[in-house]
C-alpha cells in the first residue's frame, strides 16, 4: 500500500471518523434502496456536502454501483479554496478515509499532464473529492483514483479535459463522477426552481447548456464544469441516458427552509 497518504481534513467532522460508525452511516443511507437494472453505468453526478446533509440524496445515485466493478474512478470537483492553477490534482499517492486507503493512479495523471496543464498540490483542504469516497469504497471495493479539481470551469476547459480523458481512458474500465452541489443559500422555493432548471439541462445531455446557465453570474451548481466534463466524456463513449435519481435540500434535514443548499444525483448509463 502507498505510504504517502493525503491527510484527511474531513474525517470526524464532515463524516464519522471511526470505521464502524462510518460504515454504518453509509449502510443506513443506502438502506433498502433498490438497485435498478441500468446497464453500462459510465458516470454519476453526486453531491459533496457533509454526509448527514447530502448522504440521503447521494445514496440514490451511488446505489446503482452495487455489483459493479471499475478499475479506475475519475472524480472531478470544483475548487472551494484558492488554488493557483486552473486544474489541480493531488501530490500524494493515496487518499484515506476510515474505510481504508485508495491508491491514486499516478501513471494516468502523468499521461494526463502530458496533454493538459495539470498541477499537483499537497495537504489540500478540498472536500469535493473526498466526500464521494466512502460511498465508492463501500460499493466498489478496490479501485485506483484519479482526483481532479477544476478552478477554471469554463466550457472550453471542460471540453479540453474531457477530450484528454477520453483519449487516455477510452479503452479502460472507468467510472466518472462529477462532484457538485446545486444552488446555494436561497429560500427553498427559489432553490427548487433553480435546481430543476439545471437538472433538466443535465437530463437533456447538453453539457454546454449546463455551463451556459451560469453566464448571468448566478451559480446554479458549484461544480458545473465538473458536470459538463463528465457529460462530455461519457457522451463520447456512447452513453445516451442521464437519469435523475434523487433531489433534496439541506432544509429537508435541518427544517430551516430560509436558506438552503440543493443536492441532486444523476446516473449516466446506456439502456435500462
Quick synopsis:
With 272 residues, the protein is of the alpha/beta class. The protein has nine helices and eleven strands.
Question: What topology does this entry show?
Answer:
Elements: H1 19-30, E1 43-46, H2 51-62, E2 72-78, E3 87-90, E4 94-97, E5 100-103, H3 106-113, E6 119-121, H4 133-140, E7 144-150, H5 155-169, E8 174-179, E9 184-186, H6 188-203, H7 207-212, H8 224-236, E10 241-249, H9 251-254, E11 260-269
Parallel strand pairs: 1-8, 2-7, 2-8, 3-6
Antiparallel strand pairs: 1-11, 3-7, 4-5, 9-11, 10-11
Descriptive report:
The protein is α/β, with parallel strands linked by helices and 272 residues long. The protein has a domain at 1-72 and 196-259 and 268-272. 35% of the residues lie in helices and 22% in strands. The strands form 2 sheets. Strands 1, 2, 3, 6, 7, 8, 9, 10 and 11 form a 9-stranded mixed β-sheet that branches. Strands 4-5 form a two-stranded antiparallel ribbon. A hairpin with a 2-residue loop joins strand 4 (94-97) and strand 5 (100-103). The protein is globular and about 45 Å long.
Amino acid at each position: 500500500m502507498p505510504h504517502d497518504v493525503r491527510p484527511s481534513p474531513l474525517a470526524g467532522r464532515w463524516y464519522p471518523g471511526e470505521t464502524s460508525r462510518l460504515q454504518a452511516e453509509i449502510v443506513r443511507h443506502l438502506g433498502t434502496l433498490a438497485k435498478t437494472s441500468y446497464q453500462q453505468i459510465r458516470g454519476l453526478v453526486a453531491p459533496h456536502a457533509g454526509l448527514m446533509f447530502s448522504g440521503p440524496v447521494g445514496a440514490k445515485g451511488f446505489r446503482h454501483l452495487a455489483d459493479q466493478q471499475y478499475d479506475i474512478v475519475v472524480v472531478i470537483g470544483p475548487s472551494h479554496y484558492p488554488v493557483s492553477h486552473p486544474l489541480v490534482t493531488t501530490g500524494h499517492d493515496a487518499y484515506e478515509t476510515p474505510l481504508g486507503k485508495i491508491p491514486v493512479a499516478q501513471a494516468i495523471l502523468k499521461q494526463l499532464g502530458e496533454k493538459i496543464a495539470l498541477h499537483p498540490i499537497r495537504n489540500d483542504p478540498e472536500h469535493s473529492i473526498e466526500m464521494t469516497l466512502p460511498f465508492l469504497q463501500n460499493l466498489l471495493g478496490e479501485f485506483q483514483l484519479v482526483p481532479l479539481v477544476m478552478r477554471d470551469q469554463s466550457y472550453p476547459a471542460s471540453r479540453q479535459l474531457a477530450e484528454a480523458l477520453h483519449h487516455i481512458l477510452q479503452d479502460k474500465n472507468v467510472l466518472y463522477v462529477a462532484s457538485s452541489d446545486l444552488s446555494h443559500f436561497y429560500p427553498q422555493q427559489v432553490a427548487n426552481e433553480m435546481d430543476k432548471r439545471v437538472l433538466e439541462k443535465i437530463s437533456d445531455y447538453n453539457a454546454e447548456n449546463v455551463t451556459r446557465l451560469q453566464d448571468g453570474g448566478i451559480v446554479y451548481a458549484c461544480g458545473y464544469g465538473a458536470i459538463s466534463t463528465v457529460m462530455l466524456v461519457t457522451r463520447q463513449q456512447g452513453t445516451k441516458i442521464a437519469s435523475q435519481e434523487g433531489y433534496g435540500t439541506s432544509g429537508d434535514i435541518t427544517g430551516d427552509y430560509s436558506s438552503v443548499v440543493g443536492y441532486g444525483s444523476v446516473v449516466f448509463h446506456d439502456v435500462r
